[in-house]
């Protein structure tokens, strides 16, 4: 996997063709997408055009996509892999990930649609089986549809669960990693288990701010302003680099590939050229000390009502998280099984507080 990739989350189909072609001309070879980004078809057209124009060959590309939460059932894996291949106009994917370890119930009225309750909340599939899903992915590798498989947003227990049964190695665990959320324990665990890491949202995901404000009512202040951190500014000034390049280099210098997005050609070039310098050991320690922990997590899944009750919800949940007003709404996600899980979780947290 290339150390530098192109993130395509929240890149609209109307602009993605030019965005991808521009990136390929700059030198990007790893394009990261997902079924849920709803831009695979447009990316496929961009890749087809780039190959026809001999900007790049298929063999030079590294294309990754992901199984959506609504497809988190072994029986559905083949259909979603084939759907991504058709949309991307490819014969195989270089990498395919389980996007997140918990799943949603499908709405049988249309492929890829999620069932919702009377309040419009996603309905959780409380029986998600990550082992069965992984084994179904291994079958797709054997079919030649996928070259390598991995996971995203998996915790230590979930990674170990797959390591215990896997016939094919876990190629990566794609994690939200930025200066304020470094997940050191999980990263160290994966490295010790020979599971490579890929970092997403390494710039604090500035493109997500408007999306989360409009779709989920998040406050603008909910997002970590890691690009504006004074420590990052000082280091950037010292190296005559932009803040984004410092944040990306912090991870790539640890041999962790990064997949940032961009909104302009200038940003694409800046991101791509972040590897022509090295941070000093002191600077690496300075950035390491910026770690806030779980309080800085952006993509915690709690915008899906009841997600924290799912048996495969992968993130630590705090007492404050459980008592947020938006998590008290009743939904189909708060079924009897969900309520039992929530009570167990609350009891555990109460016990930790006593």
From TrEMBL:
<protein>
    <recommendedName>
        <fullName>NADP-dependent oxidoreductase domain-containing protein</fullName>
    </recommendedName>
</protein>
<dbReference type="InterPro" id="IPR018170">
    <property type="entry name" value="Aldo/ket_reductase_CS"/>
</dbReference>
<dbReference type="InterPro" id="IPR036812">
    <property type="entry name" value="NAD(P)_OxRdtase_dom_sf"/>
</dbReference>
<feature type="active site" description="Proton donor">
    <location>
        <position position="37"/>
    </location>
</feature>
<dbReference type="InterPro" id="IPR023210">
    <property type="entry name" value="NADP_OxRdtase_dom"/>
</dbReference>
<feature type="domain" description="NADP-dependent oxidoreductase">
    <location>
        <begin position="12"/>
        <end position="291"/>
    </location>
</feature>
<feature type="binding site">
    <location>
        <position position="99"/>
    </location>
    <ligand>
        <name>substrate</name>
    </ligand>
</feature>
<feature type="site" description="Lowers pKa of active site Tyr">
    <location>
        <position position="66"/>
    </location>
</feature>
<dbReference type="GO" id="GO:0016491">
    <property type="term" value="F:oxidoreductase activity"/>
</dbReference>
<feature type="region of interest" description="Disordered">
    <location>
        <begin position="329"/>
        <end position="354"/>
    </location>
</feature>
<dbReference type="Pfam" id="PF00248">
    <property type="entry name" value="Aldo_ket_red"/>
</dbReference>
<dbReference type="InterPro" id="IPR020471">
    <property type="entry name" value="AKR"/>
</dbReference>
């Amino acid at each position: 996997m290339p150390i530098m990739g192109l993130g395509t989350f929240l890149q609209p189909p109307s602009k993605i063709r030019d965005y991808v072609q521009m990136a390929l001309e700059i030198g990007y070879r790893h394009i990261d997408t997902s079924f849920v980004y709803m831009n695979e078809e447009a990316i496929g057209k961009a890749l087809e055009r780039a190959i026809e124009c001999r900007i790049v060959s298929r063999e030079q590309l590294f294309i990754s996509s992901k199984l959506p939460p609504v497809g988190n059932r072994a029986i559905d894996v083949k259909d979603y892999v084939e759907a991504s291949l058709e949309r991307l106009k490819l014969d195989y994917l270089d990498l395919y990930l389980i996007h997140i370890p918990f799943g949603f119930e499908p709405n049988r009225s249309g492929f890829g649609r999620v069932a919702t309750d009377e309040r419009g909340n996603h309905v959780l599939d409380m029986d998600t089986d990550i082992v069965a899903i992984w084994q179904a992915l291994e079958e797709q590798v054997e079919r030649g549809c996928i070259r390598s498989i991995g996971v995203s947003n998996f915790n230590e227990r979930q990674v170990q669960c797959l390591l215990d049964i896997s016939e094919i190695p876990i190629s990566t665990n794609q994690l939200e990693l930025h200066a304020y959320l470094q997940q050191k324990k999980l990263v160290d665990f994966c490295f010790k288990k020979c599971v490579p890491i890929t970092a997403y949202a390494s710039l604090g995901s500035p493109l997500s701010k408007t999306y989360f404000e409009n779709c989920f009512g998040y406050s603008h202040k909910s997002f970590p302003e890691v690009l504006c951190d004074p420590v990052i500014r000082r280091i950037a000034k010292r190296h005559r680099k932009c803040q984004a390049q410092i944040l990306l280099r912090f991870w790539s210098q640890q041999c962790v590939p990064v997949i940032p997005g961009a909104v302009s050609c200038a940003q694409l070039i800046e991101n791509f050229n972040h590897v022509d310098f090295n941070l000093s050991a002191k600077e690496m320690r300075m950035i390491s000390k910026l770690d806030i922990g779980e309080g800085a997590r952006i993509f915690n899944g709690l915008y899906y009502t009841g997600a924290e009750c799912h048996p495969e919800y992968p993130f630590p949940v705090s007492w404050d998280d459980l008592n947020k007003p938006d998590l008290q709404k009743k939904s189909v996600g708060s079924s009897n099984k969900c309520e039992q899980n929530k009570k167990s979780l609350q009891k555990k947290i109460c016990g930790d507080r006593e």
